[in-house]
Amino acid sequence: MPLNQTFVAAGLALAASAVLSFIDNFVAAVSHEAGLWQFQVFRTLFAVPLLLVAARVSGRAIRPVNVSRLAGRSLAVSIGLLIYFAALGTLPVSQAGAGLFSAPLWVAVLTVVLFRRKIGGLGAFAVLLGFAGALMLLQPDLGNLTMLSLMPLLAGLFYGLGMMLTRHWCTQESAITLALGIFVTIGVAAIIMLGVVTLWPGDTFISAPWTAPSERFLWLTAFQAVGAVCAVTLIAQAYRIGNPTMVAVFEYSFLIFASLWGFLLWGTATNALAWAGIAVILCSGILMAVSQKDTENSTT
User: Fold this and answer.
1) Is 270 left (phi over 0), alpha (psi -120 to 50) or beta?
2) 3-class SS at 114?
3) Does residue 182 contact residue 40 with C-beta atoms inside 8 Å?
4) Could you say which DSSP state residue 213 is in?
């Protein structure tokens, strides 16, 4: 892979993380208006037309090149994201987030196990270092870990698998097609779950039944949809053209941007250990870039 293509993929991953971490700051506001599944249904209803318009304007084809492989990739990513959201209903955000961002570690493992690709000792160390930095930043309560803590780790596994499949199965698909696959899959699952929680309602964000959408809910959801469309399209393109192991490490920047947005928007301070974690994550990204350059040089 040309080095400039590697840098482009890294830049796309950074941009996606910046956008996604920004819009996620407003999920709490959505939770005061409606439940998770209603939010996902409406977000899909907003996002899909936006993607269709984008495809029309850009002249990109949205017809899948390989329907079965696109479906497999969409299902893997969607399962990972939905498990993550489900875990948020029973676990602190720190534990759920730490599990989801184990995805780069799973990507490295899957690269070796499924595709027999070598990532090198330095690349493996960079992935582990990035995961350690994420834990320093998120600071999960290790004393209160339970079996439920495995849920976000499972989310990380499916999300990492989906990103691997993006590179190895879906390189011929456009970024818009890949994004459509995720939104449609999550939308269908959300419709089913919305029916379930409406029949058997609860009083949490994840179990809240259908409610008449307020104007504020619609505006917040539309805002989320626009941001999510941009972020998902960018990250899909990053994995389509870049090495999945390298791109996955740069996704850790989500945690950095989340800390920065939290401070800028709400004045939430970040402690010394968290800033140390940010430094470790940056180091892991640099090491991964060096590892990728060495790998490319050894194959030329």
Assistant:
1) beta
2) coil
3) no
4) P
CA-to-CA separations, 231 to 5, 21, 27, 158, 254, in angstroms, rounded: 19, 9, 15, 19, 11
- The DSSP call for residue 212 is P
Residues recorded for the chain: 300
The tokens describing 67, both together, are 């329907």
**Region class of 267: left (phi > 0), else alpha (psi between -120 and 50), else beta:** left
Task: State pTM to two decimals.
Answer: 0.81
Q: Which residues contact 231 (CB under 8 A, 6 or more apart)?
A: 16, 17, 19, 20, 23
Which residues, 6 or more positions from 119, have their beta carbon under 8 angstroms from its beta carbon?
108, 111, 112, 127, 245, 291, 295
- The two tokens of residue 134 are 């994420």
d(CA 267, CA 41): 31
d(CA 35, CA 203): 9
pLDDT digit string (tens) for the chain, length 300 residues: 566 777 888 899 999 989 988 888 788 788 889 998 999 999 999 999 999 998 888 888 789 999 999 999 999 999 998 887 777 666 655 566 667 767 777 877 777 777 777 777 887 888 788 778 877 876 766 666 666 667 778 888 898 899 888 878 888 888 889 989 999 999 999 999 999 999 999 888 889 999 999 999 999 999 989 998 888 888 888 888 887 767 877 877 877 887 788 788 878 777 888 888 888 877 877 787 677 666 556 555
Residue 1 token pair: 């892979």
Whether residue 76 contacts residue 162, with contact meaning beta carbons closer than 8 Å, is answered with yes
